[in-house]
Amino acid sequence: MMITSAANPSIRQIRVLRQRKERERSGHFFVEGVRLVGEAVALGMVETLVVAPELLTSPFGQDLVAQQAGHTRMIEVSAEVFASISQKEGPQGLAAVARQRWVNLADVRLTNAPGWVALLEPADPGNLGTILRTADAVGASGVMLLDHATDPYDPAALRASMGAIFALQVVRATFAEFAAWKRAQGIFLVGAADKAPTHYQDLVYPQPLVLLMGSERQGLSPDQQALCDQMVHLPMCGRSDSLNLAVATGVLLYELLSQSRRAVLHA
Amino acid sequence: MMITSAANPSIRQIRVLRQRKERERSGHFFVEGVRLVGEAVALGMVETLVVAPELLTSPFGQDLVAQQAGHTRMIEVSAEVFASISQKEGPQGLAAVARQRWVNLADVRLTNAPGWVALLEPADPGNLGTILRTADAVGASGVMLLDHATDPYDPAALRASMGAIFALQVVRATFAEFAAWKRAQGIFLVGAADKAPTHYQDLVYPQPLVLLMGSERQGLSPDQQALCDQMVHLPMCGRSDSLNLAVATGVLLYELLSQSRRAVLHA
């Protein structure tokens, strides 16, 4: 039976997933668009598919719904109801409630470049999503969110990540847990700070490593820098004394990727 | 006399500057925060200072107001009225209406690396602001906005730019005007596209040059690519086949900066 009221309890339950506390409580998140929903289905993360037949014109989306019939819980909604839960212009008529997926720090296996990025209290979901997108593009294994980080399942983070969250392992831990893990595993940690003496291209990055980035406002504290085996800086020669966090992380990840490429070329 | 009503015509006139068409019509924009207002004052761009004495606790801001008394038009407002025009959490009690500043393409003088960035129809003001911030950080001269670009004086762009707009020259032109200028001046143009055969680090970037970036959605069309003397790509090895525009531009600008640094080191 098609749901035609935006006040329907199932629809309300989806709408509250815009709030972080409801996402935390349920362990769920809301995702929309045929491509992203398709990826969530392929990963076995989908709890409920939400379909608005009037809006779903994509053949890929229609096939997906047909394949999942009988396998995945599905609710049909009117175009108006879909619009009430969608945060997109031009909604595609396919969305899902999916289960969040987190990796435990203890289960992390370090791989070679570009490895892992650890973010200390990133505050802006758009930045976090953009970093996930870049980490995916360079072939990183995952992202660690330390202390009070913004939520990668926030709609703005999901949007900016372009679905990279489905390709990456994401870890949540306190900085203390991270520090204990780093020491126990003997992991090489590189941090970034604008006052660090070493130019980011003057370091030969050992493998495997973890790249540690501070928050947008605070950067890394002296204690956090002390945990790093090496600190690097990005040069700045204008009026500005800082970069956007996602841009700084992107430049460093591309340097890691470039160095591993040169190592292969010269091998 | 202090303005205590948010409905006051002067206050309304400021509030409408949130709309692009009102910014275009007036040639003005709204800027807040003691640091940014201070920069706008120093550049002679301020039309009217807006001061909320109850909120203005910064000694720098208080000095600025005292210095400008009698030189710059000033309106005093209550904390409530200030909050009605502010888009910041924790407003600082100092804002300004300032005049936009644009440079004509004909007046552009090319300088050495990292030179200029030309953006074709960037759509997201946050991306544009972030690119301005990065361009400033690497010491670029300016940014050219081609065809239907988002507004660098949009509040979201100003916020993301962290005031870089005050340090950079910004040009508006059509792609046709830009193409004619490039041909007439014999400027070396490097474009970015994910299918370009050349790895972005395999090109020795000649100086001076202009870096051309396509829009978030479309990238560069074949015609636009044909105008470029060289096309480069950023490698991607994950699930994702694209990068955030501001990240891609940042990685390329840092490559330009790095190459000019290596040229100096090896000179």
Describe the model.
The structure is a homodimer of 267-residue chains. With 267 residues, the first copy, chain A, is an alpha/beta fold. Chain A folds into two domains: 9-99, 2-Layer Sandwich (60s Ribosomal Protein L30, Chain: A); 105-265, SPOUT methyltransferase, trefoil knot domain (Alpha/beta knot), CATH 3.40.1280. Chain A has helices at residues 9-15, 20-26, 34-42, 59-68, 79-85, 125-137, 155-161, 175-185, 222-227, 245-265, and strands spanning 28-32, 46-51, 73-76, 94-99, 116-120, 142-146, 169-173, 188-192, 198-199, 209-213, 230-233. The interface between A and B is large, with 36 and 36 residues.
Q: In CATH terms, what is the architecture of the largest domain in chain A?
A: 3-Layer(aba) Sandwich
Seen as an oligomer or otherwise, the chain set is homodimer
Count of discrete alpha- or pi-helical segments spanning 4 or more residues of chain A: 10
CATH structural class of the largest domain in chain A: Alpha Beta
Whole-number mean pLDDT of chain A: 94
User: How much beta of chain A, percentage-wise?
Assistant: 15-25%
Distance between the termini of chain A: 63 Å
The percent of residues in helical segments of chain A reads: 25-40%
According to CATH, the fold-level topology of the largest domain in chain A is Alpha/beta knot
Main β sheet profile of chain A: 7 strands, parallel
Unreliable residue runs of chain A: none
Class from helix and strand fractions of chain A: alpha/beta
Q: At the fourth CATH level, what is the homologous superfamily of the largest domain in chain A?
A: SPOUT methyltransferase, trefoil knot domain
Tell me the domain tally of chain A: 2
Strand order of the largest sheet of chain A: 7-6-5-10-8-11-9
How many runs of DSSP E, i.e. beta strands of chain A? Answer: 11
Shape category of chain A: elongated
From the alpha-carbon coordinates, what is the Rg of chain A to the nearest angstrom? 21 Å
Q: Return the string of H and E elements of chain A.
A: HHEHEHEHEEHEHEHEEEHEH
Largest interface between protein chains, with number of residues from each side: A-B, 36 and 36 residues
